[in-house]
Model the fold of this input.
Amino acid sequence: MARGLQGGNRLRCGPEPRRRARSRRRSAVAGLVALATLTTTACGGNDDEPEVVAPGLLDSLEVGDYEPAASLSELAERSDRTAMGTIVDVEEGWRFGDGPDDPAATRKIELIVEAGELDGPIHVIWPYAQRYEIDVIREAMPIGAPVVLYLSEFAAVDGEGGWYHLGPDDGHTHWELTTPQGFILADSELGVAVLGDPSAPFDDAPPVDGDFDLWLVPTSTVPPNE
Done:
């Protein structure tokens, strides 16, 4: 990405014939027109808009104040569901505010994770800024990346308590992270596991560059009452 500009000038003394002055002015105008044409061509004109780049997945994850789990086992105990799968898509999701079109509403998109479950893909709600279109957000998502999830059921009902669902109405269950620790991403480029909240590590965490399957701890089975 080199940049360079060079130019020069040469002075002459004494009067010149008028016809040569006119010729010089015509050459200068022609040069300005050529420069304007080259500038417009190189820059693509004034109609081009800058490309919009949405924040990445972990950049948009809100950590905030919460009670972190000391271990993966504890996080599993606090979760309704754990799963390992692959991010396959992102969809428009929920708004929390005075209405579905409220510009000040809190926005939640949905990560679609294929985990080979009998009930179909897992829909995980995820916080995201209002100003980005869903197609732009999709470009910033790590589609195809493996993830481990520790989830709690999201019990909001469309239209009640300020919640409004804007995504496809397919009757699926929605899930949210039990804590920000409940999202662990396999980064294929770095070859490591990336934690949703690196500031709250687990006591029983496997090596970040080890077997990714070891990050998944199943939820315990509660025996039925006798």
